[in-house]
Design goal:
CATH class of the largest domain: Alpha Beta
Low-confidence stretches: 29-43, 525-548
CATH superfamily of the largest domain: Peptidase S8/S53 domain
Strand content: 15-25%
Mean pLDDT: 86
Shape: globular
Distance between the termini: 41 Å
Number of strands: 24
Radius of gyration: 29 Å
Helix content: 10-25%
CATH architecture of the largest domain: 3-Layer(aba) Sandwich
Length: 639
C-alpha cells in the first residue's frame, strides 16, 4: 500500500504496513480452567510463527505462518478465530525500524469555530465512538467494527476541512537508557561540562550552573555521541600517544611533511593536544573526557597563513570526511585580513563538505580584548566562539564583535583542565615561568590547566558533534542556527540588542538544549527548504555562501482585520522569505507576516491570504492541503 501521512507528536510521519508482523489481541476467559487456557495456547501455535512483543498497545506483535497467502488475507483469516478479539496491521515510520501499533484511539482537534453538531457529523461519517471531550475543540475517540482501521481513519479525518489535527494513538517499544556519566577520575575537575559550584581539590571561583550543559546533553542522547562523527582539529603539536587521544585518530595529515606522519616533539608546538582533548578526549576510565568522547579525531598539523596551504587544509577536510573543523588560531592584524582565496576555501568546505550538507567550521574569536574578532572568525560561514568564565561572566580577554556567534566556558576565573603533549615543557613565553597548574597542585603528568578562546572553541566543536549525533541530516547552517537559538543569555540583558550581544554573541552555549532541538527537528517531518540565502555581512563577501536567489520585498502596513491561513512561525528571516515566495508562486495570494518577540528572539508568523470570512480562508486551506501544505485559519487580529 502507499504510505499514509499521519500526525505524530509535533509533526507528521509517513507510515507503511509491515510486510511481516501483525498485532493480535485474544479474548479473556472467564474460567480458571487450565485445560481451556492450554487449548487456546495450542490453537495460537497453529498460525503464530513467532512472538516479538507481549504487550504493545494491548496487542501481541507476532509473525504469522502465511505459507503462500498474503499477510492481508492471513490476518483476515486469523481475525475469524474464536479466541481472537482483534487483529491489526503493524506499521513502520519512514526511516525507523521500530514497530508501531495503533491502539484504536484517535485524538481529534477541530478547527476553531466548528460546532458540536458538525463534530458529530465527522464522528458519524467514520463510525467513531466518543471516549472523552478534552475541551471545546478537542476530543478522544475510538474506532468501531464499522470504521476503517485507525491509521487510515486518522489520515482521512486529517484531509477534512473541519479537522485541524487527527492523531492516531500509536504504541511502540521505547529505549531503555542505561547511560552513566563517565567514571574517568578527572571529570570532576571539568567544571565546564557540569559546574556543581565546587571542585574536589581547590577553592576555585565557580558558580553552580556556569557550564556548557554537556553532561545533561549526554543524558538527553542516552550516550556519549556517535563514533561516525569526525572532528578535524587544525593546529600544531598533536601528541598522538596520549592515552585520551590515541586509538581515535583517522586520516591524519601534516602540511609540513605533506604526509600522514605528524611532526612531534617541538616544545614551541604543543597547542593542538589540549585543544583536541577538550573536544573529544575519550572516556577510558581514567584521565579526562572531552565533550564528544566517541567522536573520531582528524589531526591536521602545520597550520599556515599561506593561501595555498589554507586551501589545502580545508580541501583535505572535504575530501576525507571531516564533519566539524575546529580552529583555535587566526590573526587580528589589520594588515593580514583574509583574501578571496582563503574566503573561498572556507566557503567551499561549508558548502561542499559532508556530501553537500556542509562542514561545520569554528574559529576562536581571539584573546586580545579587542572590539573586533579574529578575521578568520568573521567569515559568514564560520561559528565564531568567544569565552565565558566559571562565574558565567565575559572573559576579559575574549574579543567582542557583531560577528560573534556564541561563547563557551573557559578560563578567566578558573581554568579548564586539558591534556598536554609529552614534550610540553609548561613554559610560558609571556611570563618566562613554568606553568602547568595555576595553583601548583598537579592533577596528573599528562594534563594541565588551559584556557582562552583556544579552549572554548573545541568545546563547542565537541557539542556540534553531539548535535550531529542527535540528527546527522542537519546542514552546517542549521547547526549554527541551533547553537545560537538555544544559547543561554548571560551577563547584562542591556548588552543584548535583538537577541545578540557583542560580548556574548547569542549567549553561552547550552549543549542540552541544542541536542534537544536537534532531536525535535529530526522527529518532525516538516522541514524548511534548505536553500542558502546570503545575509548582508559588510566588508568583503566574496568568500561567503553563494546564495544567488534574489527576492523583491514590498513592505506594506497591514490592518489587523480578516482571515488567512497560518503556515508557520519562524525565527530565521531567511525562512520567511523562502516560504513567502513559495506560497505566492503556488497560490498567487498575498502573504502577511506578523512579528513579535519571545525569549529575546524575533518571531515571524507567516499567514497566506487575507479574506473577509473564515469560510473563504478555509477554501484556501483546502487548496493548500491538496498540495500537501498544512496550515490553519488565523484571524489577523490575533497575530
Amino acid at each position: 500500500m502507499s504510505a499514509l501521512n499521519v500526525k505524530c507528536g509535533k509533526g507528521f510521519i509517513q507510515l507503511k504496513k509491515s510486510p511481516t508482523v501483525v498485532g493480535l489481541k485474544t479474548k479473556q476467559s472467564d474460567t480458571s480452567s487450565r485445560s481451556l487456557e492450554a487449548e487456546k495456547e495450542t490453537a495460537s501455535l497453529e498460525y503464530v510463527d513467532r512472538k516479538f512483543f507481549e504487550n504493545l498497545g494491548g496487542f501481541e506483535v507476532v509473525s504469522l505462518k502465511t505459507e503462500e497467502e498474503s499477510l492481508d488475507r492471513k490476518l483476515d483469516e486469523v481475525r475469524d478465530k474464536e479466541e481472537v478479539e482483534l487483529g491489526t496491521h503493524v506499521y513502520y515510520a519512514e526511516g525507523s525500524n521500530k514497530p508501531l501499533v495503533p491502539t484504536g484511539e484517535i485524538f481529534i482537534t477541530f478547527e476553531e469555530g466548528v460546532s458540536l453538531g458538525e463534530q458529530g457529523i465527522a464522528l458519524d461519517e467514520y463510525s467513531l465512538d466518543l471516549i472523552e471531550r478534552i475541551d471545546e475543540d478537542e476530543i478522544r475517540v475510538k474506532v468501531t467494527a464499522h470504521s476503517p482501521n485507525p491509521v487510515k481513519t486518522a489520515a482521512l479525518l486529517q484531509q477534512t476541512s473541519l479537522v485541524k489535527y487527527a492523531e492516531p494513538d500509536l504504541d511502540m517499544p521505547l529505549d531503555h537508557y542505561a547511560f552513566q556519566v563517565p567514571s574517568d577520575h578527572l571529570i570532576r575537575q571539568e567544571w565546564h561540562l557540569e559546574n556543581s559550584g565546587s571542585l574536589p581539590d581547590a577553592q576555585g571561583p565557580l558558580s553552580r550552573g556556569a557550564d556548557a550543559r554537556v553532561v545533561e546533553a549526554w543524558r538527553k542522547l542516552g550516550h556519549l555521541g556517535d563514533s561516525s562523527v569526525t572532528i578535524a582539529v587544525l593546529d600544531n603539536g598533536f601528541d598522538l600517544s596520549h592515552p585520551d587521544l590515541r586509538d581515535k585518530v583517522t586520516k591524519p595529515f601534516d602540511l609540513w611533511s605533506q604526509s600522514s606522519q605528524l611532526h612531534q616533539g617541538d616544545p614551541q608546538h604543543t597547542h593542538g593536544t589540549p585543544c583536541a582533548s577538550v573536544a573529544l578526549a575519550k572516556s577510558n576510565g581514567s584521565g579526562m573526557v572531552g565533550a564528544a568522547p566517541q567522536a573520531r579525531f582528524m589531526p591536521i598539523n602545520g597550520i599556515s597563513y599561506s593561501a595555498a596551504r589554507t586551501e589545502q587544509m580545508f580541501d583535505y577536510c572535504i575530501r576525507n570526511g571531516a564533519d566539524i573543523i575546529s580552529c583555535s588560531w587566526g590573526t587580528t592584524d589589520y594588515q593580514f585580513q583574509l583574501n578571496a582565496t582563503k574566503e573561498r576555501a572556507i566557503a567551499r568546505a561549508a558548502r561542499e563538505g559532508r556530501n553537500g550538507k556542509g562542514c561545520i567550521i569554528l574559529f576562536a574569536a581571539g584573546n586580545e580584548d579587542y572590539d573586533y574578532l579574529n578575521f578568520y572568525a568573521t567569515h559568514p560561514d564560520v561559528i565564531a566562539v568567544g569565552a565565558s568564565t566559571s562565574l558565567d561572566k565575559h572573559a576579559s580577554y575574549s574579543n567582542r564583535g557583531r560577528e560573534l556567534s556564541i561563547v563557551a566556558p573557559s578560563n578567566g576565573d578558573w581554568p579548564i583542565l586539558a591534556a598536554r603533549a609529552w614534550w610540553d615543557p609548561g613554559w610560558s613565553w609571556k611570563t618566562g615561568q613554568f606553568k602547568y597548574w595555576v595553583d601548583g597542585r598537579s592533577r596528573g603528568d599528562r594534563y594541565k590547566h588551559f584556557g582562552g578562546t583556544s579552549s572554548s572553541t573545541p568545546l563547542v566543536a565537541g557539542i556540534c558533534a553531539l548535535i550531529l549525533s542527535a540528527n546527522p541530516e542537519l546542514t552546517a547552517r542549521e547547526v549554527k542556527e541551533i547553537l545560537q537559538q538555544t544559547a543561554d543569555k548571560i551577563g547584562s540583558s542591556s548588552s543584548y540588542y535583538y537577541g545578540h550581544s557583542r560580548a556574548y554573541g547569542y549567549g553561552r552555549v547550552n549543549a542540552e538544549k541544542a541536542v534537544a532541538e536537534a532531536l525535535r527537528r529530526k522527529a518532525s517531518s516538516f522541514s524548511i527548504p534548505d536553500t542558502p540565502v546570503s545575509q548582508p555581512t559588510g566588508g568583503n563577501s566574496s568568500g561567503g555562501s553563494t546564495g544567488t536567489d534574489l527576492f523583491k520585498v514590498d513592505v506594506e502596513k497591514q490592518a489587523p482585520t480578516g482571515w488567512g491561513i497560518q503556515i508557520g512561525a519562524y525565527t530565521d528571516y531567511n525562512n520567511v522569505i523562502l516560504q513567502s515566495n513559495r506560497m505566492k508562486q503556488l497560490f498567487g495570494e498575498s502573504v502577511v507576516v506578523g512579528t513579535s518577540q519571545a525569549g529575546g528572539q524575533m518571531i515571524y508568523k507567516v499567514v497566506v491570504g487575507n479574506y473577509d470570512s473564515l469560510q473563504q480562508a478555509k477554501s484556501l486551506q483546502s487548496r493548500m492541503k491538496a498540495k500537501g501544505i498544512n496550515g490553519f485559519p488565523r484571524k489577523l487580529s490575533d497575530l
